[in-house]
Specification:
The complex is a heterodimer of chains A (about 270) and B (about 375). Chain A has about 270 residues and is α/β, with parallel strands linked by helices. In chain A, about 35% of the residues lie in helices and about 30% in strands. The chains are: A alpha/beta (about 270), B mainly alpha (about 375).
Amino acid sequence: MKVDMEKVTFSYSRDAFVLKDIDLVLDEPGLTCIIGPNGVGKSTLVKCINKLLIPTSGSIFLDETDVKSLNFKMLSKKIGFVPATTSDSFSMSVIDTVLMGRTPHKHLGSENEDLHIVYNILEDMNLTHLALRNNNELSAGQHQRVSIARGLAQEPDLLILDEPTANLDIRHQVMVIELLKKVAHENKITVLMISHDLNITAKYADKVIVMSTPGVIHSVGTPREVMNEDMIRYVYGMNSKILDMDGHLHIILGSAVSDDEMILLHRNECDYGN
Amino acid sequence: MKLPWQKYTAHDNSSEEEKRVLQGYSLYVFKKYLFIIICIVATILIAGLSISIGIGGISIIRAYEILIEHVQGNIVNEIEDYIIWGVRLPPLLGGLIAGAGLAITGAVMQSTLKNPLADPYTTGISSGASFGATLSIVMGINIIGVGNQYGIVLNAFLFSLIPMFAIMIVSSMRRASATTIILAGIAVMYMFNAMTTIMMLRADPVALADAYSWQVGTLSLIKMKDLPIMFGFVLVGGVSLMLLSSKINILSAGDESAKSLGVNADTLRIVCLLIVSMMAAAIVSFTGIIGFVGLVCPHICRMVIGSDNRYLLPASAMFGAMFLILANLIGNNIIAPTTLQVGVITAFLGAPVLIFLLIKLKKETW
């Protein structure tokens, strides 16, 4: 599925822009990571794609169809969304929680097939031993894996995840990212993931979208094309050292750049690396 | 034809682990249906007790025989037939309908508003109904100009819908979030309560006693001809809510997740609010304000079968029906021949149960 964002702007008031004239095309299957500092509009960008937020101006097209003309039911068949945090009120069993993901595809007589699909996903996520446990009894990391499983159960063309590895230990971080990449390539879908972990992004992403203040896209490309010491300094205000080993980049963070230097770096609104 | 818990079968190439999980899930679903069946059986037994205990010395089996004889047009004893059909059956059937309706609406309000303290009256319905009934009893003002008991019923029904419209107006200006609905309901509730209090302060003693008695809640004023209206609202509303139960489940995942799964959370909340309001208004206008059924019964059911509304709503309906007719049975007989109104008994039963739930409930229920 092709996602085409044209001059998308989002603001809560006349002066407070969160996104500014975003032009972005996503048309290749694979794992795409969005990186950038806090408050730069990463979550706002992805929520505009699935209509959780309505842009102030600009258009978003899914396979040439304007998102504005699609209702939530139509969107749910194409786009899956895993939020950063989930509600815990009146929770159900893990298996029933993941079964919710089959809602867009549910029809009379599909219960057994839906359950098989859900079981396979639970197996991939290493959650089968928790299938009948109540969602409320799980740890934060297990809870997050259940949310991701529900997103996968939706079998969307575009799966959006907002910081899916935030609460996971390192083993499960790698497990989840490898699964997402495998799903993206095997099913030929786009997995769009917001990430704060530059090393995970450098190792696993097929494509990286770098966002910087003031809510603009700094650069788009493969990790090797966009992830370099100058970009990290400009976007994050951090000094770093990047090593190229074992076939991928390794980012070692140094000291933070001073506030004065940050102002200097951004004063000319240097279009670095774009 | 397969029973609901037999739908989940393993494929030929399923692993042992998958077979174990599917068997576990089938058993998990079966236990929920078992609870509903137990509630139905208990309701039938308590209903039999309700219509047999009292003057006439009629046993449970004889009571059911009288019901069947009447339906077949083969009345053997006219006095026994009058006692059962004319006197005891209308409040019993009214109790079953009201109990089921209040419990199912309570379960839906708790799930849609994500608030364990929500009940059918959270949106101010009881306050509106109370105001309408008091207006009729104390001031003799009926909106549709009908005298006697039906003036009170119609007033209660019409005024109980005003809070719902107020909430819808507020929700159209802001998002129909759970917080908006609750706060708007509380605001309307306080306003109607204040106006009711003013009328009651100025009422004469007889009117004051009647108004207060209406507010406490009773099944004894229900006649056979009232039942089709109550039953119609509760049946249509209850079936509609059960058809929406899968979507109501999705609200528990949060509004953003719900929208990404194709469910417009705000619209669904308003639709549920409309249905709940109509059901609760229809019940309250005939019975007065019977508390705790809508609050406590869904929580008791959640403790046993969990929060999945596909099973919780029918379970709450059956448990609520059983709870209310049991409360009525106790109220009619505990200090016989004096009757304690059912609203008093549900409060006496419901309050300690609620405290017990708060102390003993495991975290996973909410």
